[in-house]
């Protein structure tokens, strides 16, 4: 899919700077200094930048003032301009640092995507132009978040899409590492705003990071993590404001003796829970209920079905909070058809997940988790597990308490060592 042989196996890095890292002229100048320093260390550097912080939202708001349902094509022409401003300014700042640099939009590189405006997927990247510049000793600055379709229409990759641009470029150019510079200095065992002694992880696997991101950790765009895992691009998350090694996201190594059982705790306050009770316990019921929900384009997350003594079943599932009323209306309609007894909804819930590849080879994680929650008298409403994750749904007001007690029950504040 991604073309081009590698001629820079050792020292090509792709560095991505997000919106806050390029949020002002001073910050753009600071980024230029960091990039110039990497160059002086002997690295070839491709830089991917986001729009200055707040800019993408500002552009979206402008469109909303003109049209209630603006054309997807024109939205992409509009929002892609944010990144175009940053690449030019950063290149100028690099020139000021005495560093030869050239900026390119996604279309100029030829980051080819499908034509799904606002959520396009990268299909191919032409690395030639970038390679020529690198060979000539230049830093290459590429606009994140954007590409072009076969017809040359500008497309964008979805909010937070600059992460994906960076990873895709790193894959296409066979970069040694893709470094995501952001406003936090790495990936933490959990959100440090909730747990004071949350610890920065030295290393985490692609799989774990993917679970953390999809369970609510917002450090990286999920698609970028998927992409990095698929093409095995070592990813590093680090701060653009302070020095430090950040967190390396990489493949799991079999002989990794220091593999922790649990790597982190993710949580998500964006979901709501719905239950339909008293439905017939017959084949096809889950498909009738959830089929109708998915036909309405509502994504369902945790699903649990129970059968009672009276041979009727109940089905509980979670959806995004924004979709709760829509989903409830659908359930009311189905409840009539199926003669169900009740439909309930609750948006004061949260999802808390323990994530770790070490769970594969260690029993007892669930027991420790449930004990810790029981000690705090926190009722578990739903449970779901995968090979490397245990998720519970609990009442929203217990979120902080739950995360703190789990963090200490699993001693996540200490160095990651298997006992
Ligand atoms: N500027 C885009 C956004 O705000 C893309 C990005 O920052 O990654 O979503
Ligand atoms: Mg971002």
Characterise the protein shown here.
Helices cover 34% and strands 26% of the residues. The protein has helices spanning 25-40, 55-66, 72-79, 81-96, 106-109, 128-135, 162-172, 206-214, 222-231, 285-295, 324-338, 365-375, 399-409; strands at 12-17, 44-49, 101-104, 111-113, 122-125, 139-143, 146-148, 154-156, 177-182, 203-205, 235-239, 247-250, 264-268, 271-280, 300-307, 312-320, 342-346, 349-355, 382-386, 389-395. The protein contains 13 helices and 20 strands. Strand 19 (382-386) and strand 20 (389-395) form a beta hairpin. The chain is of the alpha/beta class and 419 residues long. The protein folds into two domains: 12-257, 3-Layer(aba) Sandwich (Carbamate kinase), CATH 3.40.1160.10; 265-409, VC0802-like, CATH 3.30.2130.10. The structure holds aspartic acid and magnesium ion. Residues 18-19, 50-51, 56, 82, 144-145, 159-162 line the site of aspartic acid.
Outline of this structure?
By secondary structure, this protein is of the alpha/beta class.
Low-pLDDT residue intervals, each spanning 5 or more residues: 1-10
Order of strands, main sheet, comes to 3-6-2-1-9-11-12-10
Number of helical elements: 13
CATH superfamily of the largest domain: Acetylglutamate kinase-like
Would you tell me the overall average pLDDT?
A: 93
| Count of distinct structural domains | 2
Structural class: alpha/beta
Give the % helix.
25-40%
- Characterize the quaternary organization of these chains: single chain
CATH topology of the largest domain: Carbamate kinase
The span between the termini is 43 Å
CATH architecture assignment name of the largest domain? 3-Layer(aba) Sandwich
Q: Give the C-alpha Rg.
A: 24 Å
Strand content: 25-35%
The biggest sheet amounts to: 8 strands, mixed
- Identify every distinct bound molecule in the structure, by name, code or SMILES: aspartic acid, magnesium ion
Number of strands: 20
Shape: globular
CATH class placement of the largest domain = Alpha Beta
């Amino acid at each position: 899919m991604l073309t081009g042989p590698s001629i820079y196996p050792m020292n090509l890095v792709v560095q991505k700077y997000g919106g806050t890292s390029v949020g002002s002229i001073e910050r753009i100048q600071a980024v230029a200094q960091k990039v110039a320093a990497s160059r002086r260390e002997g690295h070839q550097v491709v830089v991917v930048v986001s729009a200055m912080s707040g800019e993408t939202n500002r552009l979206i708001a402008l469109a909303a003032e003109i049209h209630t349902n603006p054309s997807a094509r024109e939205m992409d022409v509009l929002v892609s301009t944010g990144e175009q401003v940053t690449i030019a300014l950063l290149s100028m700042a690099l020139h000021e640092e005495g560093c030869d640099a050239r900026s390119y939009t996604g279309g100029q590189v030829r980051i080819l995507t499908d034509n799904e405006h606002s959520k396009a997927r990268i299909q191919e990247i032409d690395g030639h132009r970038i390679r020529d510049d690198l060979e000539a000793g230049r830093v290459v600055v590429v606009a994140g978040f954007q590409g072009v379709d076969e017809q040359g229409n500008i497309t964008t990759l979805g909010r937070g899409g600059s992460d994906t641009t960076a990873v895709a470029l790193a894959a296409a150019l066979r970069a040694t590492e893709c470094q995501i510079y952001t406003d936090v200095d790495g990936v933490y065992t959990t959100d440090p705003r909730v747990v004071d002694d949350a610890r920065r992880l030295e290393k985490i696997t692609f799989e774990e990071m993917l679970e953390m991101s999809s369970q609510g950790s917002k450090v990286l765009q999920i698609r970028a993590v998927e992409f990095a895992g698929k093409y095995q691009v070592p990813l590093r998350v680090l701060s653009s404001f302070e020095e430090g090694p950040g967190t390396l996201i990489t493949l799991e190594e079999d002989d990794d003796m220091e593999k922790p059982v649990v790597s982190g705790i993710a949580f998500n306050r964006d979901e709501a829970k719905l239950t339909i009770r008293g439905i017939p316990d017959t084949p096809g019921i889950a498909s009738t209920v959830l089929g109708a929900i998915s036909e309405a384009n509502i994504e369902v997350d945790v699903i649990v079905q129970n059968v009672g003594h009276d041979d009727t079943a109940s089905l509980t599932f979670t959806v995004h909070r924004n979709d709760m009323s829509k989903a409830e209306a659908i359930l009311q309609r189905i409840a009539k058809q199926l003669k169900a007894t009740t439909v309930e909804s609750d948006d004061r819930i949260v999802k808390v997940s323990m994530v770790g590849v070490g769970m594969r080879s260690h029993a007892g994680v669930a027991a420790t988790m449930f004990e810790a929650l029981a000690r705090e008298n926190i009722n578990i409403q739903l449970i779901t597990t995968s090979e490397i994750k245990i998720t519970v749904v609990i009442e929203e007001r217990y979120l902080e308490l739950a995360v703190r007690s789990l963090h200490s029950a699993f001693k996540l504040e200490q160095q990651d060592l298997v006992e």
